[in-house]
Amino acid sequence: ELLVEAIEAGDMDNVISTLDQGADVNTRTHDTPILLRSVLHGDVEIVKILLKQPDIDVNAQQGDNTGATALIKALRSLKYSQRYEKTIEIIKLLLKDKRTDVSIDTVYSTALDAAMHNNAPPEIIDLIEKREQEDRLNKHLVTHSSRVADRTKLSKLKKKMNLPCEMYNTIQDHLGGKSKRKTRKKHRKKK
Q1: Do 29 and 37 meet the contact criterion of CB atoms below 8 Å apart?
Q2: Residue 55 DSSP label
Q3: What 3-state class would DSSP assign to 130?
Q4: Which of 1, 57, 121, 172 has the greatest number of CB atoms lying within 10 Å of its CB?
Q5: pLDDT tens digits, residue range 23-32?
């Protein structure tokens, strides 16, 4: 409660001291995450303090986890914001934070949809598109490295369990790797 009161009052010193005393940075008030409330208040400094907290859920959603995130709420408020410049600064802070998931699709929209619909400047739209591309690439790399690790484990397992070649090749094909059947045929022909 003290953290919520400090945020509502815009009292940075109290926000810092309550966080230092162990206040939960993911506290909700009226089913709204405090980061989102800080975004709505347009308090850039408090948003910075909250984003420095390692445990903050930057993607916490309003309501029952189908509502807006802090990023989407900031983007949606651009159209009506009297604190336009502060809102732009907050959006940039959220986009720079690697924990922010720009691909979350809420009942309202995605971050890109919200940006385009609410006349966000091209610079913001470019940042969102760049983050989406980075996120897709990272997901691809994680998937690829996972498959490589699976193939390495399978190779060790084949040696350890003495798996029949056909079973090994079938599993290897399933993991997206190329079995060595063709290579073996080439070697046989050369001999």
Answers
A1: yes
A2: T
A3: helix
A4: 172
A5: 999 999 888 9
81 is written with which tokens?
């914001």
Angle formed at CA 156 by CA 146 and CA 141, multiple of 5 degrees: 15
Q: What ranges in 42-121 are assigned the alpha helix state H?
A: 44-51, 70-77, 84-96, 111-117
Residues of the chain with pLDDT under 50: 179, 181-184
Whether the Cβ atoms of residue 8 and residue 32 lie closer than 8 Å to each other: no
Helices 2-9 and 34-41, packing angle to 10 deg: 10
Q: What pLDDT, on a 0 to 100 scale, did the predictor assign at position 183?
A: 47
Cβ–Cβ under 8 Å, residues 73 and 41: no
Partner residues linked to 33 by β-bridges: 28
| Measured CA angle at 190 (ends 185, 191), to 5 deg | 100
Give the Cα separation of 31 and 49 in Å (integer): 21
Predicted confidence at residue 14, as pLDDT, reads 93
Spatial CB neighbours of 9, under 8 Å, sequence gap ≥ 6: none
* Side-chain half-sphere exposure of 113, counting CA atoms within 13 A: 9
Output the pLDDT for position 134.
Answer: 83
pLDDT tens profile 98-135: 999 998 888 768 899 999 998 899 999 999 999 888 87
